[in-house]
Amino acid sequence: MPELPEVETSRRGIEPHIIKMRITKVTIRKRKLRWPISYAIDHNLPGQKVLSVTRRAKYLLINFKTGSIMLHLGMTGSVSIVKNSAPAGIHDHVDIDFDSGKTLRFRDPRRFGSLHWSKKPMQHKLLKSLGPEPLNDHFDANYLWKKSRGRKVSIKQFIMNAQIVVGVGNIYASESLFLAGINPKRAAGKISHNRYKDLVDSIKGILIKAIKAGGTTLRDFYRSDGKAGYFIQQLQVYGRDGEHCSYCDSIIVSIVQGQRSTFYCKQCQT
DNA sequence: CTAAGGACCTGTCGGC
DNA sequence: TGCCGACAGGTCCTTA
Question: Is A156 tagged catalytic?
Fold first, then answer.
């Protein structure tokens, strides 16, 4: 679920429901997530009014006068808006109640997600050394080309490295490399400036498309679980090993890089 | 500094 | 049908 487009979709989904609303109560059923939820959350939230909901990388930032909640969805996390005191399921770890009668609920079966309170989130350890946002103008071919010189790591792992650029997850890494015609095994340091141009265009293009498709998710979002067939129809290689490439008809293969699956077309990607 | 691998969790699916 | 291993949209931390 939570690639950057999904996080952005979540942000857009919850903001209108909680902006300008005041927190009345916080219920934490399970503190043990990726990191234990600090009691700073319990202490700081009640009485606070939401000023905005923003995003940095895959973190949702819920901003208040004195600080921010940093919420990461991990692999399986999701947020939803429910009524105050709606019955909670086994994986509903956190409820934040508002004076509007609505509750922001965080659910996460695998508990790789996290929740922090920070007075200055951008200075927070987890955010301060992140690379640029992929949709920002600072993220361009020149930047990637320069950053990659001397790097032996594969291009796929390189673009998934959040120190280099944030928000490119396992799905869109494979997809953007397919669109750019680059073999995922190629060393990042040996890719030309021109090819980085194609890659940057592909990354930006697919993320924008996926965010637009997030509108579909948004509608499901308020129905119990946002599962549905989100963007799957538009994926060219991810999860399609054994199928024919839509471009050249040869068979899409899957390999493992950095303990993650990669999908690509040997014919189209060189 | 870079790169590689382990760790953290639960749920689901395919094979035997 | 039941059990078991493999694998899953993330990313930090340790080690070499």
Answer: no
How many CB atoms neighbour CB A27 within 10 A?
Answer: 15
Its pTM stands at 0.94
Structure-block tokens of residue A78: 């999701």
- Could you count the other beta carbons within 10 Å of the beta carbon of residue A90? 9
Residues 6+ apart with CB under 8 A from A138: A132
Task: Count Cα atoms within 13 angstroms, Cβ side, for A215.
Answer: 4
Both tokens of residue A72? 């990461």
pLDDT, tens only, A190-225 = 999 999 999 999 999 999 999 988 744 433 443 334
Measure, in angstroms, how far nucleotide C1 C1' is from residue A184 CA. 42
- Please give the angle made by the CA atoms of A191, A4 and A216, to the nearest 5 degrees: 125
Which nucleotide is closest, CA of A231 to its C1'? Answer: C9
For strand C, give the nucleotides within 7 A of a protein CB.
Answer: 7-12
